[in-house]
Specification:
Rossmann fold; 4 domains; 439 residues; 19 strands; six-stranded mixed beta sheet; eight-stranded mixed beta sheet; D-Maltodextrin-Binding Protein, domain 2; 21% strand; single chain; alpha/beta
């Protein structure tokens, strides 16, 4: 009897693996749009010739599957059986149904759960999922028997059940492998068996293309739930490792500002109202550092400004809140007044620059435009974005003498600054809203 004829559409990493599996049992043709491989492979660039075979395997990227089916469907015949080997199953099932509707062309769903790495020592005892789908009994039994003759472990699953199971096995394994790669996990001289196996997962999954990883995550409807569940499990486990209290003798509060800042004033307002006396303050200067230290378990509570009645939302806070999760303990506001101050030994006529937090400059925008038209308005970077930190650096002569600080009166008292002007906020009722948060 003549051998059955088979065409493999696509000759990437898995196309080559599939060829090794079937080459001794069928007359195999490999279709590529452009001939790139060595001449010892039976490659054709003639699509019509490719569809002269009885069985057509699609070893192509998941994202390319529908466009290939659309381009090739004019060559489909009733005697064909179309076999996909994609890592997802509900998606190719939907595409086949859509484009084979009203035809007698057969289609079989398969997922060989192996690749170039796992099959380099042969195919015995490796797994393949099969689904009869649009194939007749004779065709289905032929291919099922064939896979079993190659000593593959054949598992029959519906497309939906395959994708549900795959999301929590293959999809999870590939996600963990890519996560370990992003983490840059490397072998060490003291690796345990478990660590060695994790490195094997990283190596094996990352040998596959990024395209395959993305397609498995995007075209399987269950992988999204897997990733959400994994993230929730990580958060739960991470938080269980953090101490309930950083210091058994004191509550530790991390605040957005420095010593003498409005943040410190706001915290003291809260502590006084709640009659809390056993506390320590960590001056962290930015909301991002407050939330990061809260996340890392270095502080018990964080405090930062979120909005002002004149200046609106505090931009640095909104950006930081997109990166971290927290729970609001208290939401309150205090009245804010801004004073312009300079070093005592610097003549007023030498001052030409006003430095403050961007939110402070917003709250005084109109007043500054009217009274200090020719002054340069600046904000610091890093910790210096905090007005109190900038005042400290100015007092230490680490900022230019021509700078005046715009902020709370407490800074002038602390650093013995001269007050040049007062109540520069645009509105009399200038309130800033603060959030006290915990993990």
């Amino acid at each position: 009897m003549n051998k059955k004829t088979v065409t493999i559409i696509g000759f990437g990493r898995f196309g080559k693996t599939l060829y090794q599996l079937i080459k001794d049992d069928f007359d195999v043709t490999i279709y590529q749009r452009q001939k790139k491989e060595e001449i010892n492979f039976p490659i054709t660039t003639d699509l019509q010739k490719a569809y002269e075979s009885e069985a057509i395997f699609y070893a192509i990227p998941i994202e390319a599957f529908e466009s290939v089916i659309i381009q090739h469907k004019k060559f489909f015949r009733p005697e064909h059986v179309l076999i996909d080997v994609l890592a997802v199953k509900a998606y190719p099932a939907r595409i086949f149904k859509k484009h084979l509707f009203g035809t007698k062309t057969q289609a079989l769903l398969t997922h060989p759960i192996f690749g170039p790495d796992s099959s380099k020592n042969g195919f015995a005892n490796l797994t393949i999922v099969v689904n009869k789908f649009l194939a007749n009994d004779e065709t289905y039994q032929f291919w099922k028997n064939y896979f079993e003759s190659k000593q593959l472990r054949v598992i029959e699953l519906s497309a939906e059940e395959h994708d549900r199971l795959s999301a929590n096995s293959l999809g999870l394994a590939h996600f963990i492998g890519r996560l370990l790669d992003e983490f840059n996990m490397q072998p060490t001289p003291i690796d345990t068996v478990g660590a060695t196996k994790l490195l094997e997962v990283k190596e094996q999954t990352c040998n596959d293309t990024w395209e395959l990883f993305m397609n498995m995550q995007h075209y399987n409807p269950h992988t999204k739930d897997m990733r959400i569940k994994l993230g929730e499990a990580y958060d739960k486990l991470y938080n269980q490792l953090l101490p309930e209290r950083v210091d058994s003798h004191h509550f530790v509060y991390g605040i957005q500002g420095g010593i003498g800042s409005f943040n410190e004033e706001a915290l003291m307002h809260y502590l006084t109202q709640k009659k809390i006396t056993d506390y320590k303050i960590e001056y962290l200067y930015t909301t991002e550092k407050v939330l990061r230290n809260l996340h890392e378990g270095n502080i018990d509570f964080g405090l930062f400004a979120i909005t002002n009645s004149t200046g609106g939302l505090v931009e640095e806070t909104m950006q930081a809140l997109t990166k971290y999760q927290c729970t609001i303990v208290q939401d309150f506001q205090i009245l804010i007044k801004h004073f312009l101050m300079k070093q005592k030994d610097v003549p007023a006529e030498e001052i030409d620059t006003i430095m403050a937090h961007p939110q402070v400059l917003k709250q005084c925008e109109q007043t500054l435009a009217e009274k200090y038209t020719h002054f340069k308005l600046i904000s610091g970077t890093g910790d210096l974005v905090d007005t109190a930190k900038a005042a400290e650096q100015l007092a230490k002569k680490k900022l230019s003498n021509n700078i005046a600080i715009l902020g709370p009166l407490t800074l002038a008292k602390r650093y013995h600054f001269d007050v040049l002007d007062e109540n520069l906020q645009d509105k009399k009722d200038n309130y800033t809203r603060f959030l006290l948060v915990k993990r």
